[in-house]
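Task: sequence in, structure out. Protein: Coproporphyrinogen III oxidase family protein.
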Amino acid sequence: ISCEANPNSATLNWLKNMKNLGVNRISFGVQSFHPKKLHFLGRIHNQEMIIKTLENANKVGFKNINLDLIYDTKLDNKKMLEFELLHLKQIKDLITHLSAYNLTIESNTAFAKKEHFKKNAPNLMKFFIKQLLELDFFQYEISNFSKTKAQICKHNLAYWQGKNYLACGLSAVGFYENKRFYTAKNLKNYIENPTFRSIEQLSSKDLNLEHLFLGLRSIVGIDETKLNQWQKDKINILLKEKKLFYKNKRYFNPNFLISDELALYLSS
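Result:
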């Protein structure tokens, strides 16, 4: 059971209660160590809270601790990312996993209204990932890193392998037998009817596209038995160009940064 929390609200007592309830993985929405960037992202915690919360999680006995970071904001440049990496290195022994996401702008959010926002060049992403690998993190998906292969997040793998999974809480998403289940997105509605689920029936085309997209951006890879002949012909071209490699009846992408382009090529 994995639970998400923010450093400013995850008190020692709360962590103890979560552990006693059976939660065995905790994920902290740190997002940044830099005060200006935290302010830009609307976060109210600081470095001291981050360190204290991680120490408390270890003290309580959590063995699987994740930290979320966000990069590619308008404040990010090489100097900012070096600051993040320096502080990450200092707390590395307190975590077992890292998720590093580029900032995604959704419509009808506060960030969508910031006209001065613009994304930085992709080479910042390459730099950041390269530095994480040099810190001995193992990258098993475009945004996810574990300290060892044994510490890969199991529920992350379940998503990418197309396995069934349950989800509860506001705006949660579950998956079971080719159907996706959504809880209420409005807090009042969720409290009044926490068992409500809207259902999305996924077509074979939907499932094929997801298998391609998720497999190419992770170590899961693509199952050759799920490809049609037309896709296999395209795969052979990618193999010749060394964009993919083949092992144990699966195709793997050695460069996660081009996963979207590869998925588009195979599905169009």
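The CA atoms of residues 155 and 165 lie 8 Å apart.
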